[in-house]
Every structure is written in C-alpha cells, then in structure tokens.
Amino acid sequence: MNTQQVADRLVALCRQGEIQKAMEELYADGIVSIEPDHAPTKSATGKKAVFEKGKQFASMIEARHGGSFSDPIVGGRYFSVAMMLDATFKGQGRMKFVFMRLKTARS
Predict the structure, then answer these.
(1) What is the pTM of this model?
(2) Which residues of 65-89 are buried (b: 16+ CB within 10 A; e: fewer)?
(3) Which of 1, 20, 27, 34 lies at a C-alpha separation of 20 to 30 Å from 46?
C-alpha cells in the first residue's frame, strides 16, 4: 500500500468503529505512541503496549456522545488525521478531546 492508501484505510476503519482492527492491520510491531505529560495515559512502545494503552483509555470512558475523524492530509511518506472524541469520563465529567495523529506509512 502507498501512503494515501494506508491513510484512507485507517480513516475508513476508524469511521466504522473498527479502531482495534485498524491497529492490528496497519500499525507496525515497533509502533511508538507518544503522549504529553498531562495525558491520562502514558506513552507506549510496541504494538502490544499500544493496544493495552488503548484498552486503558477506553476503560476510563463512562459514555460516548460522538466523535469524528478528518480526511487524511498526506505529504510524502507521512500523513496526519485529526480525531475528536466527545465522551463522559468516569469521575471527570463530559469532555471533548481533539487528537492529531502523525503517521509514517510502510515503505
């Protein structure tokens, strides 16, 4: 797959609610997921650790109210996707998170 195809596949799966499938299919074994110091989850390295981080984040959600995934912006071997999550978090109330993901496509 070229970069555009990887980006399009990721967004399509995420929009269908198939985020786990997207991770299994498209993430490299050595993926690095970096979070800021104030994030509710910590940075993780490796597919298994990133999967576990995703499960931890999902366990903090009391109710989902919506979300969206932008069309990807592709430049060379890289692409970005903006993601928004509107959810009520356990003990924290309702919040909207906006994420930007920068990915490197497979060679």
Answers:
(1) 0.84
(2) eebebeebebeeeebebebebebeb
(3) 1
Higher pLDDT, 81 or 40: 81
- Tokens found for residue 58: 């999902």
Cα 3 to the chain's mean position, in Å?
17
C-alpha of 52 from chain center: 13
Residue 103 has pLDDT above 60, yes or no: yes
72, 14, 32, 56: CA torsion to nearest 10? 150
Length of the chain: 107
Return the DSSP state at 39. S
CATH topology of domain 3-104: Nuclear Transport Factor 2; Chain: A, (3.10.450)
Encoding tokens for residue 54?
A: 């995703």
